[in-house]
Amino acid sequence: DIQMTQSPSSLSASVGDRVAITCRASQSISTYLNWYQQKRGKAPNLLIHATTTLQSGVPSRFSGSGSGTDFTLTITGLQPEDFATYYCQQSHSSPWTFGQGTKVEVK
Amino acid sequence: EVQLVESGGGLIQPGGSLRLSCAASEVSVSSNYMSWVRQAPGKGLEWVSLLYSGGRTDYADSVKGRFTISRDNSKNTLYLQMNSLRGEDTGVYYCVRVQEDYGDPRLYIDYWGQGTLVTVSS
User: Fold this and answer.
1) What residues of A are in contact with residue B114 (Cβ under 8 Å)?
2) Best CA proximity match to A89, nearest among B113, B44, B117, B76
């Protein structure tokens, strides 16, 4: 199985900050990498698919990059509604696997 | 607007069985890839099973042989039959639609239900 490792597991940030979350795959997954946001008590929400493609309706302050084994989700200009947990997920090989999550908290 | 509404969760004893349902609207379960993802309390997301539009199925090793994914096209409903339940199966189960953009094999989950809670405990 492909292991997905996110870092950090949590971070504290302020409104307006630039935040970067990394996701590392245990083997190459090309660009088969998706990012989701989950708020407390809610279902996850798709942010970015295929590493860099912003889902319709998602603000442009979210961006994704990477390929192979190393990926990054960047939030440029953190907003109050962005405090949440973020997950990466690979769809390169079965079983699909998620990272353990990164919780973005208020500093 | 696409809606996925799960039902069938509840408290069940270890070794028991439960069937989850996912009623879909504005999306056809027969012509889309559909999947189940679960989340243990306070934990991360875990993919459980996938049903391709052509009928092929796939399962996480942790549920293989115990869970069965299926659909009823006439009811536009997805199911997850869960047998031999264990404590580690406890969690919220989400029904999701898996999107495949034309000509692009990189699949992703674009719609999630609200989830149904399964608690396996004696």
Assistant:
1) 43
2) B44
